[in-house]
Fold this protein.
Amino acid sequence: MTATALGRARRTALAGAVCIGLVAGMTGLVGCGAEEDPDAGTNGVGKLSAAKIQRKAQAAAKSANSVRLAGSVVSKGATYKLDMKLTEDGGSGEVRSKDRTFELLRVGGQLYLKADADFWASQGGRGEQGAPDSADEVAADKLDGKYVKVPEGDPAYKQLSGFTDKGLLLDGLLTLHGKLSAGERGTADGKRTVKVSGDKGAGGTLHVSLEGTAYPLRLERAGGAGTLRLTDWGTDFQFRKPDGRDVLDYGKQLPTS
């Protein structure tokens, strides 16, 4: 190879190295100058308006027969940690607050609550200053680790069953508040997403999948009221009534007061 040819080869190699460095170090540059299309290879949802993206995500969530919802929810000053598997006809999972943990299982219209003795003892509070007395503790021991049927007429039924109701939960959670904006890209559970926000995030932010169906994958609730992951869309969750030996039925109302 002549000296001239060798010089050209070196310059070509140097230009290629510079190009590679730019591609690796700067988002949006490919081929040294060509702009990357953020919607290349996606489902195209990112090209829609913010309102249309929100409606698309809501429709996808409604059409799915199941979802797993996990994260934190702040309600009336209390923080709840949720990990719930939900279908159109039931739900199962755990709810934790600062000092209480319980499990919920709903099969059709029948709701079951499962907790340890400490949880049930704290519901009594018939002793001094609201502390559990000996009768509370005896009753709590009998309920420890058992599935307790929650009667539909019990005041607790509506509140507790709401944690297991896919439609009710998602209708409330997936509605953003204020002026909508969209466009910022991100990732959630390893999938590319487009963010839709209400009032620049103050009204909540949804991360909507840009891959496959436009499911909502992450929700940052308005006012900092918790963050939730939405995964396992369409998974075949199966919920069955617990074995009768593990179930206690207290008739019309739970023994919690």
